[in-house]
Amino acid sequence: EVQLVESGGGLVQSGGSLRLSCAASGFTFSNYDMSWARQAPGKGLEWVSGINTHGNTWHADSVKGRFTISRDNAKNTLYLQMNSLKSEDTAVFYCARNFYSGYGMDIWGKGTLVTVSS
Q1: 16-42 pLDDT, tens digit each
Q2: d(Cα 106, Cα 85) in Å, to the nearest integer?
Q3: Which positions ≥6 away from 56 have C-beta within 8 Å?
Q4: Paired sense of beta strands 10-13 and 112-117, if any
């Protein structure tokens, strides 16, 4: 079945770095735009970053200059490199598949928790 499995979350000190991975299976990964979103404790879901099938990327203002989304189609894997982490980055991070046509996401992973200590 179609699956997205996040990994790489954990505890990191403020100012530190972490790389999240999302392993995709059950579909042709290279045909889809992909996104990362997050949900901080007590907060709503926030879109973080996206990458299209051509490798063009977009990042939310809150993470620009600190986070970098990338993909390795040969490995069916999506990445999110997070640098200069702040306490407010603490959240459950989700990877998601964008609709093949149109905007929005249709398949989501279960999430991986990132905790940034200060």
Answers
A1: 999 999 999 999 999 999 999 999 999
A2: 28
A3: none
A4: parallel
